[in-house]
Amino acid sequence: MLLYLSQWIQDQAAGTAWADPLSALRVFRYITVRSAGAALSALALSLWLGPLVIAWLKDLKFGQEYLDKAQEAGTDKNQPFTKKGVPGMGGILIVLVVDLTTLLWAQWNEFIVLTLVSLLVLAALGFYDDYKKLTEQKPAGAAESLKLVVQFGLAGCIALSLWMLPETRPLISEIQIPFLKHAVLSDAAWVGGLITVLAIVGSSNAVNITDGLDGLAIGCTLIVTAVFLIFTYIAGNAILARYLFVPFVPGAGELTVFCAALIGASLGFLWFNCHPAQVFMGDTGSLALGGVLGIMAVLIHQPFVLVIAGGVFVLEIVSVMIQRGWFKYTRRLYGKGNERRVFLMAPLHHHFQKLGWYESQIVARFYILCLLCAVIALATLKLR
Q1: Which domain, by its residues, includes 332?
Q2: Exposure b/e, 165-177, CB count within 10 A at least 16 = b
Q3: Does residue 262 form part of some domain?
Q4: How would DSSP label each residue in 55-95?
Q5: What domain count does the chain have?
Q6: How far is CA 158 from the centre of its chain?
Q7: Phi and psi of 269, rounded to 5°?
Q8: Inside any domain, residue 4
Q9: 133 and which of 61, 139, 241, 300 could share a cystine (Cβ 3.0–4.6 Å)?
Q10: pTM of the entire structure?
Q11: d(Cα 117, Cα 110) in Å, to the nearest integer?
């Protein structure tokens, strides 16, 4: 919006005495300037709206009155307070701030529209899930089948829309692998479509599963988004993309502004979500944030980079898959009541709680691991 406004002002001033003084408004053409503005605006807006949103959620009695998995399993013995009563649905704050700041600072194109619409769809799905958990006497949330139908449906629509447009069809039909200069497959729309769907659905659920400790999911999301801030800028710059042998995607540079807005909003939310948390993002935030990470990875032709950068998310969701799979297998093998487990508890962060680690220790160490994954992901830019 600010870009269009600045261009309109310059057009109106053309040929007048105001033309030269107002020429400074040309800085809004630069993605770097608008990204910095988006990050700072999102951070300031989050810090300002945060207390208001938390108070609003408390007034609506949207506090978590049920025991979380750690409390049910008794893995929070080192924690001197309970998390009951802390408001959920804090993802509303993140989604609201990201949408507003992106619309304010970005140049609107199909990538921005697709990302923002997807963010709202997944946030609405998460909101429904959170609402059922926070208002029902037996908090089960939305049916897992319903969540998967919406996620797969959205991912399928994105894959189909990208394939139908000639300018974005290579994002689906060509398969790009990190560490390699050129696509390993071409005219492989079915493979690309499957990768697209799995990247979006898998990322959405992986972040959702990771959201189990104060500050864990949002901090790791912040780190991964910082990686994609760099990748989206390079993908949208023809010179840098050619130099680094990264697929050039016209218009993808505007996703840099979205990433900057998400970083600012995440920093602001982390202020209230760090241990001890004043608010939880809930599925409203985790499903939406995970989904848009997957969507951005697809839109810049780097879904496998997300697997590397989001290594913590991958470990979390794989731990759940292994635990469930082994549990069901041993139940069939040995009978009910004789099941086996690989981890003391899944997801992985609860396994370390069972080992006696403090919550803040786990979060800090997972941050370190996430940073290492981010460095490896960035290294793929040169190791090609």
Answers
A1: 31-379
A2: eeebebbbbbbbb
A3: yes
A4: HHHHHTT-B--S--HHHHHT--TT-SS--TT-B--THHHHH
A5: 1
A6: 16
A7: -70, -35
A8: no
A9: 139
A10: 0.92
A11: 10
